[in-house]
Task: inverse folding
C-alpha cells in the first residue's frame, strides 16, 4: 500500500518537477530514463532532485551518464565472459585453498562486482561509474570534472562532496594508525582516511563498503541489500565458488526489494540503518557477504588489472627505459628543488642535489640506488595544502529536502571540509571514528586530506592523450575538491600558493589578476597549512618538466592497461588563438563562478570538541 | 595527560601492525653539524601576515617537523610564538623552514628569532640571533 501511495505521489511530482525543470534547467527530462533494455526489471524512477541553480549541473549530464553506463555494462559483460572462460579452481588442502585459479577467480569476482549496476536502488550505478579504467579508475565524465566535481548517485541528482579518488594502489595503504614517533596519522582510505580497515585489516576493502550505502552514491539503505542483490546476480555461482556454497542462502523477508529500491536517508527509515528484518543468523550471513564484497573488490584493485606497475618510470627502474631530458629534469626537480618526494616517496636512496640556491638538480647525476623497486609515490600521510573552497562543488547546493525527505547538507555554504579533522570528531559527512584515543588530535588534523599516489594522475584514454589543454585532452580534476583542472595548475599551485596569495574567495580575484595564474584565493581551512610547499622557486620551464615527469608515472607503457580503450565519449579541445583560457595554466577558468559571501562554518562542524585551533575556522 | 604521554597511549592502542608500514618515511639522519646557513629572512609581508624562511642543515628526526618563530614588539620579550608544519626530506642534506606569522599590527616593528622542533615539540636546538621586521 505504501508503494502504491508513493507511485501516485511520484506521478504528481514528476509532472510538477518536470515543468519546473524545463523552465529552469538545461538538463532534459529524458535523463530520468534509467532503462537499458537488457532484460533487467526496471524500477520507476522518482523525480529529479534538483536544488541546483542554473549552470551548476553540466548541460550534457544526462547523455554523459548514459554514455558511462553503456561503458560500464560493456566491461561487466566482458568480465562475465572472462569468468566463463576461466577454468574453475579446485578446493583442496588444509586449510582449504581454491587451488590453481582461485586468485584469478576472486579478482574476476571483484571486477564483476565493480561494474554491477544492480548494487544500487535504481539499478543504475556501479562502482565503476565514478571509477573508470581510462581515467586511472577516477572520474569518468569530463564535464563533471570541470564543474560539479562530485558524481551523481543512483537517485539523480544527489551527489557527494569530493572527487572520486583513483583506485590504483589504494590497496597498498596500511590500516589507519597513529604513529607516535612521527606524531601523525598514516594509512586508511578515502580523502579523510575514514575507511580505517580496523576490522578487515584492509582500508581498501573497508573503502569498498562505503559507496554502496552512501546516501550520495549508490544509496542502498541497508548493507544487507548487497547480499540481496547478489542472490540474483548472474555471477552468483562465482561468488559461491569463492566464498563458499550456501554463503548467499539468506531468508529475506518479502518486502526486501521494496526496501532496497528506496534510497538511504529516506525519511521512511528514520534512523534505522538495518530496515531489512533478518534473523540473527541471516544478519550475520549478510554481514559476511558485505565483508566479502569489500574483500573481493580489494583484490581486484590490487591486481595488475588496476594496480599495474607498468609505467615508463617502472621501466626506468628496471633499466628498460631512458627518461627523456625533460622527464629526467622533472624527476630531479621532483626529488630535489621541488621536494615533492618528501611525501610522494620515489623509492630512491639518496638525493643528488645540493641545497638551494646552489642547487643544480636538473644537471645532477642520479646516484640514488633503488631502495624500493615499486615505489608508491605517497607517504600514506595527510596534509592541508591550503586549497580554496570550490563553489562549484555540488554539496553546497543540497540544502533542501529531496523527494524522500533527505537533506544531504543542511548547512549550505556553511559547510567546511575539515577532512581528517572531521573524521576524528566523528563529524557530519564522515564516519564514526573507531578509536576515541584519536579524537584529541582533531585540531592538528583539520583540513588535512590524504596524500594520493602521484601514479596515474595523468592516465587518460588513448584517444585523448593528455590532461592538458589545448588537447585533444581528457578533462580531469585534481585534489579533494577538484579545484585544480590540469597538472600544470597542480604544480603551479605547489610552486606559487604563497607567491600570489589574495584574501579573497574563488571567483573574486582582483581586476587584472588571473585566478590560478597570479592569484590564489585564500585556503578553505587556514589551520595546519603545510609550508613544505607554497614557494618552490620553480621556473615555468621547470614546472613543465615536473609535469613531464608525472606523465611517466602512467601505467600502460610496458604492457597495455586493461580496459583503457572503453572510453566512447568526446575529447576536449580548444583554440588558443580564440580562447584565452585555452592553456594548461588557465584550463577551466571559463567555468569559474564567484563564491557567494560565506556564512560562518556550521557549528555542527566547527563547534564540535575538541574545537579547531589555535584559531577558529571562519 | 601531556601530549607525549597521550601519543604513547594512542600508539599502544593503535591496532595491528601492517607490513606496508615498512614503506613509511624513515626518520632523517641528523647532519654532522647543523646550522642555519641561509636566512632567516622575510619571504613576504603584508599588514598583518609575514612569512619567514630559512634553510639549515637537516636537523634529523621525525619527518613531521615544525618551523618555530618566537616574536614580540620588544626584543627582550619574544613571548609570542608561531609555528608551521613542514616535512623533512630524509634524502636531503638540508631543510627549508617557512613559518606564517599572522595577526600582526600594521606599521609595527617586531623582533624575532627562529627555532625548529620535531613532531613532539622538542627543539632541534638550532636557533637564530634576534632579527627584526616592520609590517607595511
Result:
Amino acid at each position: 500500500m505504501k508503494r502504491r501511495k508513493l507511485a501516485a505521489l511520484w506521478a504528481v511530482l514528476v509532472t510538477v518537477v518536470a515543468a519546473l525543470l524545463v523552465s529552469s534547467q538545461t538538463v532534459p527530462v529524458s535523463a530520468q530514463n534509467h532503462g537499458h533494455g537488457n532484460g533487467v526489471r526496471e524500477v520507476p524512477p522518482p523525480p529529479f532532485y534538483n536544488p541546483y541553480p542554473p549552470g551548476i549541473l553540466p548541460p550534457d549530464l544526462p547523455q554523459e551518464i548514459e554514455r558511462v553506463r553503456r561503458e560500464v555494462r560493456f566491461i561487466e559483460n566482458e568480465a562475465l565472459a572472462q569468468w566463463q572462460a576461466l577454468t574453475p579452481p579446485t578446493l583442496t588442502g588444509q586449510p582449504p585453498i581454491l587451488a590453481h585459479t582461485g586468485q584469478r577467480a576472486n579478482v574476476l569476482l571483484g571486477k564483476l562486482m565493480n561494474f554491477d549496476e544492480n548494487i544500487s536502488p535504481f539499478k543504475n550505478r556501479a562502482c565503476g561509474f565514478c571509477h573508470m579504467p581510462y581515467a586511472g579508475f577516477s572520474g569518468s565524465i569530463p564535464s563533471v570534472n570541470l564543474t560539479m566535481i562530485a558524481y551523481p548517485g543512483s537517485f539523480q541528482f544527489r551527489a557527494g562532496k569530493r572527487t572520486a579518488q583513483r583506485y590504483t594502489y589504494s590497496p597498498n595503504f596500511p590500516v589507519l594508525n597513529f604513529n607516535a614517533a612521527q606524531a601523525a596519522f598514516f594509512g586508511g582510505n578515502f580523502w579523510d582516511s575514514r575507511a580505517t580497515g580496523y576490522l578487515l585489516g584492509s582500508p581498501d576493502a573497508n573503502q569498498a563498503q562505503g559507496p554502496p550505502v552512501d546516501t550520495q552514491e549508490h544509496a542502498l539503505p541497508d548493507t544487507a541489500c548487497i547480499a540481496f542483490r547478489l542472490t540474483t546476480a548472474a555471477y552468483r555461482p562465482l561468488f559461491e565458488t569463492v566464498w563458499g556454497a550456501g554463503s548467499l542462502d539468506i531468508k529475506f523477508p518479502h518486502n526486501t526489494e521494496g526496501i532496497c529500491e528506496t534510497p538511504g536517508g529516506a525519511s521512511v527509515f528514520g534512523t534505522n540503518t538495518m530496515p531489512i528484518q533478518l534473523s540473527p543468523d541471516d544478519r550475520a550471513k549478510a554481514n559476511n557477504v558485505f565483508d566479502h564484497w569489500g574483500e573481493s573488490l580489494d583484490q581486484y584493485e590490487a591486481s595488475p588489472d588496476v594496480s599495474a606497475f607498468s609505467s615508463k618510470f617502472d621501466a626506468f627502474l628496471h633499466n628498460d627505459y631512458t627518461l627523456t631530458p625533460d622527464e629526467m629534469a622533472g624527476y630531479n626537480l621532483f626529488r630535489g628543488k621541488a621536494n615533492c618526494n618528501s611525501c610522494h616517496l620515489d623509492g630512491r636512496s639518496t638525493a643528488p642535489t645540493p641545497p638551494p640556491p646552489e642547487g643544480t638538480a636538473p644537471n645532477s647525476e642520479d646516484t640514488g640506488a633503488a631502495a624500493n623497486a615499486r615505489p608508491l609515490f605517497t607517504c600514506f600521510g595527510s596534509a592541508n595544502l591550503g586549497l580554496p573552497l570550490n563553489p562549484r562543488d555540488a554539496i553546497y547546493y543540497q540544502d533542501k529536502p529531496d523527494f524522500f525527505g533527505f537533506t544531504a547538507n543542511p548547512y549550505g555554504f556553511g559547510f567546511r571540509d575539515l577532512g581528517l579533522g572531521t573524521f576524528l570528531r566523528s563529524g557530519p559527512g564522515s564516519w564514526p571514528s573507531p578509536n576515541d584515543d584519536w579524537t584529541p588530535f582533531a585540531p592538528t588534523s583539520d583540513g588535512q586530506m590524504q596524500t594520493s599516489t602521484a601514479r596515474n594522475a595523468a592516465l587518460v584514454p588513448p584517444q585523448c592523450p593528455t590532461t592538458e589543454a589545448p588537447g585533444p585532452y581528457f578533462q580531469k580534476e585534481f585534489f579533494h575538491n577538484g579545484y585544480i583542472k590540469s597538472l600544470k595548475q597542480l604544480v603551479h599551485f605547489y610552486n606559487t600558493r604563497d607567491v600570489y596569495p589574495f584574501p579573497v574567495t574563488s571567483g573574486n580575484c582582483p581586476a587584472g589578476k588571473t585566478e590560478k595564474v597570479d592569484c590564489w584565493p585564500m585556503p578553505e581551512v587556514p589551520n595546519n597549512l603545510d609550508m613544505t610547499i607554497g614557494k618552490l622557486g620553480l621556473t615555468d620551464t621547470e614546472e613543465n618538466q615536473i609535469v613531464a615527469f608525472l606523465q611517466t608515472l602512467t601505467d600502460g607503457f610496458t604492457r597495455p592497461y586493461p580496459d583503457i580503450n572503453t572510453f566512447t565519449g568526446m575529447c576536449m579541445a580548444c583554440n588558443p588563438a580564440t580562447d584565452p583560457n585555452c592553456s594548461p595554466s588557465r584550463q577551466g577558468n571559463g567555468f569559474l563562478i564567484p563564491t557567494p559571501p560565506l556564512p560562518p562554518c556550521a557549528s555542527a562542524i566547527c563547534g564540535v570538541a575538541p574545537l579547531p585551533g589555535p584559531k577558529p575556522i571562519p | 595527560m601531556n601530549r607525549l604521554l597521550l601519543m604513547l597511549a594512542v600508539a599502544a592502542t593503535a591496532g595491528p601492525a601492517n607490513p606496508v608500514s615498512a614503506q613509511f618515511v624513515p626518520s632523517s639522519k641528523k647532519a654532522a653539524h647543523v646550522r642555519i646557513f641561509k636566512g632567516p629572512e622575510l619571504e613576504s609581508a603584508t599588514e598583518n601576515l609575514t612569512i619567514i624562511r630559512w634553510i639549515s642543515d637537516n636537523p634529523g628526526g621525525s619527518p613531521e617537523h615544525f618551523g618555530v618563530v618566537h616574536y614580540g614588539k620588544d626584543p627582550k620579550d619574544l613571548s609570542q610564538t608561531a609555528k608551521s608544519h613542514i616535512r623533512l626530506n630524509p634524502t636531503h642534506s638540508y631543510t627549508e623552514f617557512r613559518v606564517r606569522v599572522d595577526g600582526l599590527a600594521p606599521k609595527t616593528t617586531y623582533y624575532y628569532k627562529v627555532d625548529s622542533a620535531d613532531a613532539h615539540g622538542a627543539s632541534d636546538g638550532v636557533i637564530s640571533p634576534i632579527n627584526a621586521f616592520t609590517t607595511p
